[in-house]
Amino acid sequence: MKEKNLSRRHFLGLVGAAGGATAVYQTAMAMGLMQETGPVAMLALQSAGPAGKKVAVLGAGIAGLTVAYELERAGYEVTIIEASHRVGGRNLTLRHGDRVDEMGYDQVCNFDDDPEMYFNAGPARIPGHHHRVLHYCKELQIPLQIKANFSRPAYKHDPERFGGKPVLMSRYVADARGFLSELLYKAVDKNVFDEPLSAEDRERVLQFATGYGDLNSKGKYTGTRRGGYKSGGFAKPAEHHPIMDFGELLDSKFWAGGLTNSENPDWGEPLMEAVGGMDNIIKGFVKNIKRPILTNAQVQSIQNRADGIDIIYNHKGQRHKFSADWCFNSIPTHFMQGIPNNLSKEYKAGLASLRPGNFFKIGFQMKERFWEREGIYGGITSTNQKINQIWYPSHGIHGKKGVVLGAYAFWDQSKFFERMTPDERLRFAADCGEKIHPGYADYIEAGVSIPWGRMNHMMGCGTSWSPEARDRYYKMLQQPDGRHYMIGDQISYHTSWQEGAFASAEVALLDLDQRVRAASSTSRKG
């Protein structure tokens, strides 16, 4: 290349063209352009001392439980105050008889009373680079299993393309890469890049395009076995799928997610999940936290004092006051404007600048694992219908029944389902599934829907930061305002993920520890 000063943006563009999203992510990490979740900090917190210190934890989600667990080990007296009837926050696994606490509707999960019949209505995936989640799973002895997130025998479905019929994911991936590689081959062959390629470079790129797209010796894409066999291939000769129409493939918007989902760092294999349900992470913490967790207790006031903080909460119709030395608060930030407090003006403005996210899920118990007869074992079918996705369970292979995710709507899409009754949601999702798997609705034995925007004590899922709010308020909100820390995935760069909640708790704990150590040092010198 003649260009002497290759920009970082241009360089990452070249990396992405050659290696995809994963290569860009890893390269950006190496160049220091992206935040790494990083290794888990050693939380060797200084002991609270024989007198101890009282700490209030508001909210029994991942962040709150982490704070309570670590501070109790350091000798603090921790009281957890949770508004809901249950602990865990958005880490919610539904089983037989569980109540869905949706505003305006009473839902009870009517799956079979079987430990294999469960649905992860909140977090459902643990990436290998989420070090904090994995650290606590190991420390709390929570068994994990591999979760298949991408399955080539699953489908991509677009009602307006290919006759509205579902197409194997393997065919989409193979043909997309084949067509693009053919274009690359032609471009190199005609030497139409901005800068001339050397003969050696030209040959290497041609070899890359040929191998990546499975082109023939003339650089033409004529189909590939990578798309799977239409028939045969074992006792009889293989018959490959015909090539899809390139124009329809482009129009199908497969590029918007289906082609690269598995290369997103948070979705790329190997992924894991807690054996028996993700709420086993919550159970692991609860088992190791000494003091009982106070549930059905709604916070009504937070007031800083010079040497502590007062929490007013309502429990069973009575107001109570709890005075603590410190408070760690994981209440959703969009609720804080409605809770009387004396936090600083700038701090309140920071909390008010955040916007709640939203997600929606449906879980279906199926009387037969029909997808396995289609060669699907785990993974996700993607569709342009409003349900967006169908997930197939990675556990219970060859069992009689299974629970599938029948819809996963994101952000504003969730409102479409929120306007429906629970029964209407299930019927709509069943009709969408029929267009992908004929007879889908007949397999459904029970269903449950979780609209996070309508869930009591939540009214949202995840948090949206504008670039302006992030620049102005993020570092401030990581610090305490008086004796009050704000925590949770909402105060992280990884909102909606458990890793963000763990990271937020870690930052707050280390800050408190630093302050306690500094105060102890000053006291000794005095």
Word description of this protein:
This protein has 526 residues and is of the alpha+beta class. The protein has 14 helices and 25 strands. The chain has helices spanning 8-30, 62-73, 131-139, 169-189, 199-213, 246-251, 280-288, 345-352, 370-373, 414-418, 422-434, 440-443, 467-478, 498-525, and strands at residues 54-58, 77-81, 93-94, 99-102, 105-108, 119-120, 126-127, 144-147, 155-157, 167-168, 229-231, 239-240, 271-274, 297-305, 308-315, 318-324, 326-329, 355-356, 359-366, 380-383, 389-391, 402-410, 444-451, 463-464, 484-486. The strands form nine sheets. The chain has a four-stranded parallel β-sheet, with helices on one face. α2 runs parallel beside α7, α2 (62-73) packs parallel to α14 and α4 (169-189) packs antiparallel against α5 (199-213).
Name the average pLDDT: 87
- Can you tell me the overall shape? globular
User: In total, how many domains does the architecture comprise?
Assistant: 4
The computed structural class is alpha+beta
CATH class of the largest domain: Alpha Beta
Number of helices: 14
Query: Can you tell me the residue ranges where pLDDT is under 50 for at least 5 consecutive residues?
Result: 1-6, 15-26
Strand segment count? 25
Over the alpha carbons, how many angstroms does the gyration radius reach?
Answer: 26 Å
* Proportion of residues in helical segments: 25-40%
CATH topology of the largest domain: Polyamine Oxidase, Chain A, domain 2
Main sheet summary: 4 strands, parallel
**What is the beta-strand fraction?**
15-25%
User: In which order are the strands of the major sheet placed?
Assistant: 2-1-17-25
Q: What would you say the CATH architecture of the largest domain is?
A: Alpha-Beta Complex
Report how far apart the termini are: 66 Å
